[in-house]
Structures are given as structure tokens and as C-alpha cells.
Amino acid sequence: MPGIIFIKTSSLGDVVHHMPAVTDAHLHAPDARLTWVVEEAFAPLARLHPAVSEVIPVSTRRWRSQLMRSETWSEVSAFKARLKSVKAEKVIDTQGLIRSALIARAASGERHGYDASSIKEPVASWFYDVKHAVARDQHAVMRNRTLTGLSLGYRPDRAIDYGLIKPPRSGDARYAVLFHGTSRASKEWREVDWIGAGKWLHAQGLEVVLPWGNERERLRSERLAQAIPGSRILDRLPLDETAKVIANASLVVGVDTGLLHLAAAYEVPLIAVFLATDPGLTGPVGNGSITVVGGKDAYPSFERVIEAAEKLPLKR
Question: H helices of the chain, where?
């Protein structure tokens, strides 16, 4: 059985953006064994794709902070040995960074990646056997699909398919998930707007669910829960369990954060609030109902989100 190794290590949104490329590769070569190298924190997400035969976690983020420990170098050696044991014909690095290119170099197989003009870190292209030109002004999903197609010899012309299987519902309650946490303060929506949107959703008969990922977000969730009637703070869950919550939501509203893209992948009705980044390159894309409000340096009010929600077919 021919083997293909994908290297897409992080971040959360990038991992989700790579899933359609995995689907394409599986449809093109259904007998190929697909292996995915991904940061340990995101391994549960990579395992959600049914076409992936093996997930190899890598821990570059943690290793960088623990370089003086002998245990770190033992882990590095074990990772390289496991990677080397995979007999692959093609190794495709869709991450396009020096650290991911070094991982590709440690793998067995013909190494494919972006050429120097197609990536943020041009030095990474030095480590590939075959380099491909991929336009940088394409959406991240299309860049991944294009590079994978060029590497395997086909043209990705199908509709986007993330390949995920919707998990069964655990109850009949209708709820909306509000992703208020994000990596930068400039991408955050004001709490007064979250409260305005949350109160409207409650009035529509939807329970408002508030996830959090760190202490700052937990405290914000508590403040929002006090102001939004009938809302619930979601326990901190593993990523694959969080994915189940997202998949069965009636609506997701979120700022520019990785989990937003899982809603797009599961075709959940989605409203994305963008404030400081360009949704054209990394915004949510998929076959479900997606509305993007705001944009770089454009601040939308909660009334704009309500207006968008009124036009969506809320999932039941």
C-alpha cells in the first residue's frame, strides 16, 4: 500500500484548513495509507478525519521551552525514529515553515513543499526535493488543496469536503455556541455586544453555551453568563469532545479563532465576527450557511449579528 505523510502541525485553524486536502488525497488514492504529523495538542482533531490511518504527534512547542532536559532529546529521538519507520512515497509539508520542513527532511519519501516565493519562510523550501508554486493570495484551504494536488498529480476541482462525520446528538436541547476567546486582544468583540447577541438568542429559545480556553476567557465567560439569561459555561473539554458540542449546535457565533473553523467543517450555521484580520485569506469556508460580519478595521455591532442570524436556517 503506497504511503503519504502530511505535515501540518499547527495551529488549530490551520489543522482544520488542511482537512479538505486530506479528503482530496483519499479520493485520488483510496488505497494509500495517510499519515498526519501534527502538534500533540491538535492530535485529537487530526484523528477525527476517517481517511487518516495514523497520527504522529510532535511536540516542537513544548520541546523549545525544555531544550536543556535530557527527556526532551529522548522524545525527539523517539519521534524521529517513529517518523522514519513510516514507509511513504510522498511527504507533503503544507505548513511551509522551517520547523515543518525540517520534519519533512527527517521523513522517508520524496519531499514536496512550497517554493521560496510561495511561503512566509523561504528558507523552508531548501529542504524539499520538489518545490511547487502556489499563489499566496488564495484562501488557506485552497493553498493546502493545491499543494497536495500538485504533489500527487491531480487538480482539486471538487467542492470543499472536510471529511468529518457528524457525531450523534446527546440530547434534544437547541443551543448556540459563542466563541468569545481569541489569540489577540485586537480580535476581541466587546462584552456588551456578546451580551446583546446572547440575550437575543435566549429570546429565540436557544441555550447560550460559553466555552473558554484560559483563565482570562473563563472569567469573561462568568461575566457573560451572569448577564445572559439561561446561559451555560462549557466545561473545558478535550478538542475531540469540543468538536461534538460544535457539530450539534443550532448556531455558532465567534470571533477569529481556530474553533470557528470546526463549525464550518461540520456545516453548522455560522456567524463570524472579524475585527482585525482579513477573512478572505483565513476566514471560515465550507458548504454550510456562513456569514462574515465586520472585517479588518471594521467593527460590527451586535445588531448586525442579530440581523445576520435572522437570515440563517438555524440547525435543529
Answer: 12-28, 43-46, 60-64, 70-85, 98-106, 140-152, 191-203, 215-227, 239-247, 258-265, 279-282, 302-310
